[in-house]
Amino acid sequence: MGKTIVVLIMALSFVPVLGGQARAAAPAPDISASCAVLMDVDSGRVLYSRNPEEPRSIASITKLMTALVTVECLDDLSQQVTVLPAWTGIEGTSLYLKAGEQLSVETLLYRLLLHSGNDAAVALAEICAGDVETFVGWMTQRAKDLGMTHTHFADPHGLSSENHYASAMDMARLAAACLEHPKLQEIVSTRTITMEGRSLVNHNKLLWQYPDCTGMKTGYTRQAGRTLVSSAERGGQRLVCVTLNDRNDWADHAALLDYGFLQYPQRVLGEKGEMMGRVPVEGSLLHTLPAVMRETVRYPMEEGEEVRAEVDLPEQVQAPVKAGAIAGQVRFFSGNTLVGESYLVWEGAAHRDVVGEDLRRSPLELFRQWWDRQKEA
Question: What's the whole-model pTM score?
């Protein structure tokens, strides 16, 4: 294969238009939170932040990590467990578990995330790890794996005030990880459910107040104040929002989510099947082959932002070439930041038609040979 070349092929500027005129960007909402992050899930782009890396007490939104570690630890959530005395009488919000009763792990997860049961958190920790201390160590390690650099856990429920903290940015990363697990996504989006004789109502009022809300978790302690993690989806775009110490969190989350969807809609940078270049073919009657995008690439773009695409393709290719094989790569940049990429694949096949003795054949013979192979393809 020949020398690789990089070519600037386009620059896109996204300027929303309303009534024939460019729409001015709306200001970010004025919110009450001490710390906040609004993030696009699929790209990881932060659309709004206030003190995003400041470690703070987080209260019961801790339980998102408890749930994530649980579902990653246990394969069978339907397994029945017997409630131990050590799991009962936990202070704060409680499910009032009774020693000796039988419950499934799935029921405990619903009680953890909908009702915010502290006793359910202790129960799940001991079911998974045998003791709370080991489980909490797993929580902190999982946080490190997710890049949560301003986080440390001291318990599975969020009651601790010492050495138990996270930043808004870290909680946004955790929320995005939870959304990648189908069972957790199902649980946090549930408004009400009855399981094993207990009716549960989700404490997250945004599920009723904000039409696009897909769930997440509430929290409160005197030291942490009101904490909230929410998720929402509109037109295929997924956002997560985190506020810490926010006395007006329901309204603030609705305002921030609207701001994200309206000011940073996902733009298509390149469509699956879109041709990004043609490459000369040697050894074939087919002179060039188109290279097309293997998948669609999207990115949330603000008004007036520009994106450039750089294509990496060979100067030429030797036949035979198989349709769908990787041809190269395209990368999309906003400034110097990589915002998306895709492999490029050959849109068609190229057979080896002209080699050695083939050069002595008549043009008609070569054409017939080429035509037969095209029909076979």
Answer: 0.84
